[in-house]
Amino acid sequence: MQENKVTCILCPRGCTIEKKEQGGTFEFAGFGCKRGLEWAKVEFTNPKRILTTTVHVKSGEIEFVPVRTNLPIPKEKIFEAISILKGIEVLAPVEIGSVIVKNILDTGADVIATRKVGKKDSSDD
Amino acid sequence: MEKYKVVVIGGGPAGLAAALESFKNLDDKKVLIIERDKFLGGILNQCIHPGFGLHYFKEELTGPEYAHRFIEQVMENQIEYLTETHVIEITPQKEIVAVNKKGLKRIKADSIVLAMGCRERTRGAIITLGTRPAGIFTAGQAQRFINIEGYRIGKKAVIVGSGDIGLIMARRLTLEGIEVKAVVEIMPYSTGLRRNIVQCLNDFGIPLLLSHKVTKIHGKYRVEGVTIAKVDSQLKEIPSTERFIECDTVLFSVGLIPENELSKKAGIVLDMRTGGPVVDNTFSTSQKGIFACGNVLHVHDLVDNVTLEAQTAGRYAAMYSQHPELFENNIHINIVAKEGIRYVVPQKLNKNFVQPFVLRFRVDNFYKDAIVTISNAGKILMKIKKSILTPGEMESIEISQKILSQLDFSNDIVVSLQNI
Q1: Tens of pLDDT along chain B (420 residues)?
Q2: Integer distance in angstroms from the first to the last C-alpha of chain B?
Q3: Mapping DSSP to helix (H, G, I), strand (E, B) and coil, where does residue A83 land?
Q4: Which of A6, A14, B257, B360 could join B194 in a cystine, given CB atoms 3.0 to 4.6 angstroms apart?
Q5: How many Å apart are CA B265 and CA B275, to the nearest integer?
């Protein structure tokens, strides 16, 4: 989505920051503080988000392990990353922080487990 | 009957932090955590999204990661815990009746920390007309089904309520390939955190319909759609604004209520506004030796605050179990919420423990450029300017030694809000 307005998320004030083009240079309006301005610049040029989802676990005490990217990845790559993670199955045990996918979609971010999953105990059923 | 110094009921973030802090402060380290679910960590286990720990750990964690840091310490210290164990009764004498696969258990505690968390309000709580087909969930229930059990709960969804859980589930459903048709909010504003509106709705182009309500749910076996309508300033439907939205799933995210069934049985006095026990600055309830913290006390928006509050409760619970005589002649003065302030926690100050503490409160509406004052005996002791105050964000004020030293203990402490 190419928009000329973003809502700042750094504090409850929630300023609407507008980007205006004037003779090839950009100007920003509506920001309430310096931090907000810096945030908006990044948000306009290359918005990034941490992606979190779950991945299937084989022979684990639970069937899905929650995962996240260890760095924010470009917003437009989120759905592509999700579809990769949907097709993956890992084998228990999984340690918290262990890498599930390295450098996903060449974003430089690894997908890591955010929960420890032990092996399934046969007495569980 | 087994005996413990401190028994913590609930193994979520509040329970874990309270148990750890009790443990640290006890000589005889007999602490027990009782958890209903199979794992420690509570609802954090299903909150797989980031945004936890920014204040407490100064880094951004997911729910399971935040919980893990405390679970790890519980393990390292070999604090005793029971999972898949349900407490069915606590008595004012601090006897606990619990049940699990092995049967019934009776436990005697010197002090108890209540940390049972909260419950979701359901469709019934907001009286939504229509049929009762499959496909209607509370947002947290859907979160558990998707994030832990791994079910696909539907294809097209409407979310009722724009609190944080509703917003986060809008994103989660979208990532799972479920189309979120709209988030319907009856108030003219969202009570969710700003960052969630941006990152969960705006990012995916999900419409947020403010001043709208779901007037009816349709469908015989499975949800087939909902009727929505605009509401006026009295929250009444405006005729001829009805619109049908086709969907097979409806999520309700319409508020949380502290889970106080056990507290009621123990005869604990509850606060009508928070829905949780009335506590003093030691987090002691009206029953001596029974303490409360976390969402069972009042619903928090950030887990970081739960942790801090639970640590205080855990510390005083340990103190009570070792020196109950310190709590023998409790005398309290009330802390009262007035104009613009919906509630304060704690609601009382214990004269035996006049030590700096954090006062947490929520306002009753949106305010711009307002002053929060703390007064006592007609004298203003503290003034804090706030550029923005919203009902969705819990506020905290540190009550310092300096303020405490100026108190007239024969009068209430009054917290109120003034416009500039």
Answers
A1: 899 999 999 999 999 999 999 999 999 999 999 999 999 999 999 999 998 999 999 999 999 999 999 999 999 999 999 999 999 999 999 999 999 999 999 999 999 999 999 999 999 999 999 999 999 999 999 999 999 999 999 999 999 999 889 999 999 999 999 999 999 999 998 878 888 898 999 999 999 999 999 999 999 999 999 999 999 999 999 999 999 999 999 999 999 999 999 999 999 999 999 999 999 999 999 999 999 999 999 999 899 999 999 999 999 999 999 999 999 988 999 999 999 999 999 999 999 999 999 999 999 988 989 999 999 999 999 999 998 888 878 999 999 999 999 999 999 999 999 988
A2: 60
A3: helix
A4: A14
A5: 15
In one letter, which amino acid is B75? M
Cβ distance of B194 and A96 shorter than 8 Å? no
Per CATH, the number for A52-113 is: 3.10.530.10
**Three-class DSSP category at A117:** strand
The answer to whether B393 faces chain A, any CB pair under 8 Å, is yes
B199 lies within 8 A of chain A by CB: yes
Residues with Cβ within 8 Å of B283's Cβ and at least 6 positions away in sequence, in order, are B291, B292, B293, B297, B309, B312, B313, B316, B317, B346
Instruction: Give the SS3 label for residue A31.
Output: coil
- pTM of the predicted model, to two decimals? 0.93
The rounded Cα A105 to chain-centroid distance in angstroms is 13
